[in-house]
Amino acid sequence: MLKSELLHPEILEVLGRAGHSSRVLIADGNYPASSASGPGARLVSLNLAPGIVTVAQVFRVLLTAIPIEAVNIMGMPPNDPDRLPHDPPAWDEYRSILQAAELHLELQPIPRWDFYDAVNSRDHVLTVQTADQALWANLLLTIGVRKSV
Fold first, then answer.
1. What is the DSSP track for 3-64?
2. pLDDT band at 149, cuts 50/70/90?
3. pTM of the predicted model over 0.85
4. What is the domain count for the chain?
5. Distance (Å, rounded) from C-alpha 70 to C-alpha 105?
6. Is residue 12 in a domain?
7. Residue 1 pLDDT > 60
8. In whole angstroms, what is the distance from residue 90 CA to residue 37 CA?
9. CA atoms within 13 A on the CB side of 64
């Protein structure tokens, strides 16, 4: 019986083999997950229907299973026609999730094309593809070190 909220066997397998500095992408429904990933990364598709499952839902559950040392978001280019005059609502939700988990981490933006490069690294071990329809909802998590108890 698992104590973590995470029950998905394939995700658990990948995370169990991951180590410090491994990266996990939680991709929104617009992310090109089949073509923009690390050379050895596993793709797990949880995109059941539009809006089901969301990045935030996956993020909440992953925080119960792995230590996180960094949370990167895809930064909005200043000239993007879809650019919002404020942070996307998804980012505020991620901040709330971090706060509720008592993690004192800031969302760190990576410019869009650099974000794709960051994902396309040997450290990228897993992409969880969601059907989240929110704009700018992608999260790139860096696994930290498990603290001794």
1. -SS---HHHHHHHHH--TT-EEEEE-TTS-TTTSS-TT-EEEE---BTTBS-HHHHHHHHTT
2. low
3. yes
4. 1
5. 7
6. no
7. no
8. 22
9. 13
Tokens linked to 37:
């990933």
| Residue position matching structure tokens 């603290």 | 147
Phi/psi zone of residue 90: left (φ > 0), alpha (ψ -120 to 50 degrees), beta?
alpha
Q: What is the CATH number for 128?
A: 3.40.1650.10
**What's the count of helices (H) and strands (E) in the chain, helices before strands?**
4, 6
Spatial separation of the C-alpha atoms in residues 98 and 91, rounded to whole Å: 11
Write out the residue range of the structural domain in which residue 70 sits.
19-76+85-143
Query: How far does CA 129 lie from the centroid of its chain?
Result: 9
Using an 8 Å Cβ cutoff, are 129 and 24 in contact?
no
